[in-house]
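queue> pop job 88
queue> type: inverse folding (structure -> sequence)
queue> payload:
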């Protein structure tokens, strides 16, 4: 098992859950690993949790686990 940082992107605009979801999805698609990611580590901030729920509507991930 490995931990790798793929991208640290500048975030323009608000740090909203929708923007976070868009940035995550762009990185996952760029590296063609949308179906390979099993877990996300977050700070448990509301906008991060909501971003993962939004991401789950686009990918086969379980945002609750």
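queue> result:
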């Amino acid at each position: 098992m490995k931990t790798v940082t793929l991208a640290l992107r500048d975030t323009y605009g608000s740090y909203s859950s929708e923007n976070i979801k868009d940035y995550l999805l762009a990185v996952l698609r760029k590296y063609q690993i949308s179906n390979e990611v099993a877990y996300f580590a977050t700070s448990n901030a509301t906008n991060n949790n909501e971003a993962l729920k939004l991401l789950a509507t686009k990918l086969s991930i379980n945002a609750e686990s």
